[in-house]
Here is the input.
Amino acid sequence: MNFFLKIFKLLPPELAHSISLNCLNIFYKLKILRLFFSKEDHDEKVTFLGMKFNNRLGTAAGLDKNGDYIDSLGALGFGFLEVGTVTPLPQSGNTKPRIFRNYDENSIVNRLGFNNKGVDYLVNNLKKRKYKGILGINIGANKNSNGADRINDYIVCLQKVSQYADYVTINISSPNTPNLRDLHNSENLSLLINAINKNVKDLGIVKPIFLKISPDESEETIDNIIKHIENSCFSGIIATNTTIDKSNVKNEKIKSIEGGLSGELLMEKSTRKLSYIRSISSEMPLIGVGGIFTKQDFDRKINAGASLVQVYTGFIVKGPDIINEILSS
Ligand SMILES: Cc1cc2nc3c(=O)[nH]c(=O)nc-3n(C[C@H](O)[C@H](O)[C@H](O)COP(=O)(O)O)c2cc1C
Here is the structure.
């Protein structure tokens, strides 16, 4: 496995990403996944908001944006998967290069900009999946949608994906779609939540809905978000997405790159946000994400108030072995 990881590190990030996940699909289809990755039985079943999980560790959004790898990722031993972010229309995202690896500091900067094949492509994959575990679907807005159109993008995606999802994530926290993070502000959030409330009611959607937030918001904004969520159809919060704050990055080249920082350098910040939410709202259902590399990191998120934990950068850096490493007691 280490041999493969070393080869992939020499390739451009997006090429490495697609080759490694396509290999995973091939191994899965040939039924030889076990030759490469051992799957230990982690019997840590947990029920959360009525959903039954095999364990508390899942993939974070962005790893499988279009649902192309659901069955093979699901076979690795994750307790749940989150696919997306998907938008109503396909879009190519920002120009390349747009992913920058910072291996010395176990982190990544990305400015992908919601590149995805559109919600209809994802739905087609969702219909074909064999994976029976818990699946979250993360939805967003197209880059060129503004105002009411932007809110309508979430509604279009919600309507199309909800029947195939165990839970839905409303992503307002990507730093790479211009002005998307404005949706954290009270007035904008209120418009978004009201529109989602109405549609959830009209369509009779009974699936849990999460709001995925940025780690860069003030405590005042978080207080306000909590109030909005407590008075809505939303079930909980996913904390957090990537940060635009690169003050703790040592590598000067990476520090100056525009985009969202993930991985080890995000751990402190995202966990502090999680703890803060828990200190304000003792009952808020929380999913923790940001900087998970070890079992200790995982335990810190749980101790900070998360019921479930997601990983992205740690999986890219360490490969599938990270699952057994985190879940073995
Ligand atoms: C290359 C890349 C792409 C991402 N794409 C998305 C995305 O489409 N939607 C989303 O909600 N988060 C996305 N994220 C953020 C992750 O889901 C996660 O919140 C963040 O990376 C922190 O977790 P980590 O430190 O384990 O990577 C992306 C992260 C990376 C590194």
Remarks:
- The pocket of flavin mononucleotide is lined by residues 60-62, 65, 85, 99, 108, 110, 112, 138, 171, 174, 212, 241-242, 262-263, 266, 289-292, 311-314 (CB under 6 Å).
- The chain has one domain: 2-327.
